[in-house]
Design a protein that fits this description.
Blueprint: E1 4-10, H1 16-24, E2 43-46, E3 52-56, H2 64-82, H3 88-93, E4 98-104, H4 111-121, E5 130-135, H5 140-157, E6 163-168, E7 174-177, E8 180-182, H6 187-197, H7 206-236, H8 249-262, H9 269-283, H10 286-296, H11 305-332, H12 341-365, H13 373-385
Helix pairs in contact: 2-4, 4-5, 6-7, 7-8, 7-11, 7-13, 8-9, 8-11, 9-11, 9-12, 10-12, 11-12, 11-13, 12-13
C-alpha cells in the first residue's frame, strides 16, 4: 500500500518525538527534554491505520553553525529523495505531500526567525502545503496569540499561500500542579488536516479517520491515567493512616477533567454534576470505604503503611480514570448523555466493587523488593490494564 509522506521539521526540544508518539500510536520513539533534542539523523515513522508516514528531521539548534548544519542536512535528504529513479514506485515513495513546521508555544519571540530557517531548509518543496504545529500550547489565550503571530510571520516571507493550518497542540498530559492537569489536545485536528492534504488515492475516508481518532483518544486518556497514578501514589504514600479518599479528591478531579477534555466534553453545570458524581463514588461512597476495608483486612499482607497507602491511592486513581474514560467515550459516541447520572454512578460502583480489591491485592503481592513511586505506579497501571 502506498503511503503519503509528511516532513516534520523544527527546533530541538520542541517536542517532535512526543508529537510522533501521539499521532502514530508509537510508544518507543525516544523523547528528549531540554534544548538538545534526541533526533540526530533523518528517521521515518509509520503508524498502523494511517495513510501517511512521518519523516523526522534533525532538530534545529539555536547557534548559527548548528542551525546551518540542520538546514543543509534537510536539503541534502530532499535532493537525494527527488533524484529520478528507474523504479516508478520508488520515485512515488519519496514524494513529500505535506510539511509540519513545529514551533514551541513558549518561544513565540523566535517564530519569525525559526519559520525563515525552516523555509530555507525545505526550499526544494516550494509547492508543498505547510501545517504549523504549535507544541506545548498549554494556555488557550496564548494559543490564539501564537496563531496570529505565526500567520504574520508567514505574511512577512510572502509564502502565506502555502500555510494551510496553524494547530496548537499538547501531545502529552502536562501537570501544572496536583490539581491541574492539562490534557492532550489538537492531535485529532492535526490528523484530520494532514489526511485532507494527502492525494485522493491514498486518503482515509471520514469514517476511518473517526475510528482512528477514537483509538487515539483512548490512548491519550490512558496517558492521563498513568500520569495521575504517579501523582496518586506520591500524594498518598505517607506513613500515617489516611482519611479514605479525601487526600485524592483534588487529584481525581484534575484527572477526570483532563479526560473529559480529551473527549471534548463541554464545560457547564451538567458536566460538573456528572464529574462530581464520579468523584463521590471514589471518595466518600460506601462502596469506596468497603473496598479499602476489604483490602486492609486481607490476611498475610504485611507492608509499610506508606506503601499500602500508595497502592490504595494509585489504585483508586486508576479505577476512576478508567471508568471516567469509558463514560466520556459513551457520551462522545452519543450512546449516553451528561444527564445519565444514575448510570455513571452504578457503573463506577460496579467497577470499584468488582476490580479494586482483587487487583490491588495483586499489586501488593507483586511489589518489587525495593518499591518506589515509579515502579509501584507502573505495577498498578500494568495490573489494572489486564482484563483478567
Amino acid at each position: 500500500m502506498q503511503l503519503g509522506n509528511v516532513l516534520l521539521i523544527g527546533e530541538s526540544g520542541v517536542g517532535k518525538s512526543t508529537l510522533i508518539n501521539a499521532v502514530l500510536k508509537r510508544e518507543e520513539t525516544e523523547v528528549g527534554f531540554g534544548m538538545t533534542g534526541t533526533t540526530q539523523r533523518m528517521e521515518i515513522y509509520e503508524g498502523e491505520g494511517l495513510p501517511f508516514r512521518v519523516i523526522d528531521t534533525i532538530g534545529f539548534e539555536p547557534t548559527f553553525f548548528r542551525k546551518t548544519k540542520a538546514i543543509n542536512a534537510v536539503k541534502k535528504w530532499s535532493k537525494d529523495s527527488a533524484k529520478k529513479k528507474k523504479d516508478e514506485e520508488e520515485k512515488e515513495d519519496k514524494q513529500i505531500h505535506a510539511i509540519w513546521f513545529c514551533v514551541e508555544g513558549t518561544r513565540r519571540k523566535l517564530f519569525y526567525d525559526t519559520i525563515k530557517s525552516m523555509l530555507r531548509a525545505t526550499s526544494m518543496w516550494k509547492s508543498i502545503p505547510i501545517v504549523v504545529v504549535i507544541t506545548k500550547s498549554y494556555s488557550s489565550t496564548e494559543s490564539e496569540e501564537n496563531i496570529k503571530m505565526v500567520k504574520e510571520a508567514f505574511r512577512k516571507t510572502r509564502q502565506a499561500e502555502r500555510l494551510k493550518e496553524v494547530i496548537p497542540v499538547v501531545a502529552a498530559p502536562f501537570v501544572i500542579q496536583d490539581d491541574i492537569i492539562v490534557p492532550p489536545k489538537g492531535i485529532d485536528v492535526l490528523i484530520n488536516k494532514t489526511n485532507e492534504l494527502m492525494p485522493e488515492a491514498i486518503r482515509m475516508s471520514q469514517q476511518d479517520v473517526a475510528v482512528y481518532i477514537l483509538q487515539r483518544k483512548r490512548a491519550l486518556a490512558q496517558g492521563v491515567v498513568a500520569t495521575s497514578v504517579v501523582l496518586g501514589v506520591t500524594v498518598t504514600a505517607v506513613p500515617i493512616p489516611i482519611a479514605d479518599g479525601l487526600m485524592l479528591s483534588s487529584l481525581e478531579l484534575a484527572e477526570i477533567k483532563a479526560i473529559a477534555g480529551i473527549y471534548e466534553i463541554k464545560k457547564g453545570d451538567k458536566s460538573k454534576r456528572f464529574i462530581d458524581s464520579i468523584i463521590e463514588v471514589g471518595t466518600v461512597s460506601a462502596v469506596a470505604r468497603t473496598a479499602i476495608s476489604a483490602l486492609k483486612a486481607i490476611p498475610g499482607i504485611n507492608i509499610a503503611a506508606s506503601i499500602m497507602n500508595g497502592v490504595i491511592g494509585g489504585s483508586f486513581v486508576t479505577i476512576l480514570g478508567e471508568g471516567a474514560a469509558y463514560a466520556f467515550e459513551q457520551i462522545y459516541l452519543g450512546k449516553k448523555s451528561l444527564d445519565d447520572i444514575d448510570w455513571v454512578k452504578k457503573m463506577m460502583e460496579s467497577k470499584l466493587a468488582e476490580e479494586f480489591s482483587g487487583k490491588a491485592e495483586k499489586v501488593i503481592k507483586n511489589l518489587p523488593e525495593k518499591p518506589n513511586f515509579k515502579n509501584v505506579s507502573q505495577l498498578i497501571v500494568d495490573t489494572f490494564s489486564k482484563k483478567s
